[in-house]
Design a protein that fits this description.
Length: 92
């Protein structure tokens, strides 16, 4: 299982971070974990939430982000710096 170290502090280009402010703290936390390939069950266990609650946070975040699928949400998160270790693949 992965080890979650808590939400990241996000600094940098404001355009890159655009949209994150529309998400609640818990939605950002769940999105961060989704972006880093955590399953719903892993997220639920790590955050001490029920699986239905995790799915609710995901659904609410999808609406705010304007995406329809998990893969779109992951890309949205990657583009906003939520991928741990993204300095290895990022091209600024």
């Amino acid at each position: 299982m992965n080890t979650y170290l808590g939400p990241r502090n996000l600094y940098g280009d404001p355009a890159r971070l655009a949209g994150l402010e529309t998400l609640s703290g818990r939605e950002r936390e769940v999105l961060h974990l989704i972006t880093n390939a955590w399953s719903n069950h892993e997220i639920a266990a790590e955050l001490h939430l029920g699986i239905t609650t995790v799915k609710t946070y995901i659904r609410l975040a999808y609406r705010k982000m304007g995406v329809d699928s998990r893969s779109q949400a992951v890309l949205w998160g990657v583009h906003r710096g939520l991928l741990d270790g993204d300095e290895v693949v990022r091209r600024d």
